[in-house]
Amino acid sequence: MTAEQQLQDGFDAFHLARSQTRLVSRLYAQAFGDAYPAGLATYSSCNRALLTTLLKRLHLCPGQLLLDAGCGSGGIGLWLARTLETRLIGIDISPVATQLAARRARVFLAPGRAAFYTATLSHLPFPNQHVHGIVCVDVLAFAPDRTDALRELQRVLRPAGRAVITQAVRHETPAASVEQPVRDAGFELEHLDERPEEPAAWSRLYRLWISHETELRRALGDEQANRMLAEAHRMLPRLPDRRALALTLRRPTHDGR
Description:
Elements: H1 3-19, H2 23-32, H3 48-58, E1 65-69, H4 75-84, E2 87-92, H5 95-108, E3 114-118, E4 131-136, H6 146-156, E5 157-170, H7 175-184, E6 188-194, H8 198-211, H9 213-220, H10 222-235, E7 242-250
Parallel strand pairs: 1-2, 1-4, 2-3, 4-5
Antiparallel strand pairs: 5-7, 6-7
Helix pairs in contact: 1-5, 2-8, 4-5, 8-10, 9-10
């Protein structure tokens, strides 16, 4: 089994298990508090502050096309498309996730305004310069080669279009280490927004997972619960050194201006 197939199978099981219970969403809501975007059912670091940043940085107009790269069950992209009055395409490595997103689209958008595809960041099933804007929340870290993934996002984005991507680095990471892959992919780094509240939210969430182990095992089964608990124990010691960012990347126009 290839690494990509293993990743797909893992996320299929992840989304299927969480779609059958509200427990995990309740724990996210408890950890994020008033910042949790109720109704989106996201399993990422997305909060109301990030949604505001996405709205501000994308510069999209009604009727344009937004790509949610790594859409999961669709909440973030669907909310943005509804709010900005855009069309939406989403991709995810998990067929289960894209099926869930397609079902949720009926609640958020009129028929024909959203479509979802099973794909990876490294191989997007779209022609060059196809979309006006891109969001990619907590997904880039799963790409085998981040620069290649960024190049693929740049390929499908129209000139002067923007991609907003979340990324976590260590506090001591030099700025050049963040900026170099962006430049290598042909982007300009237009904005770098700090997300200082994000590590503490993850800390609260991971501690809730640990304290609700019995309920998680009952609702999700041992395999998914074990994955969540392993992540919690692995990540908790790293959070004090975590710096969370939202990068706004702009594809230059043809003449470079």
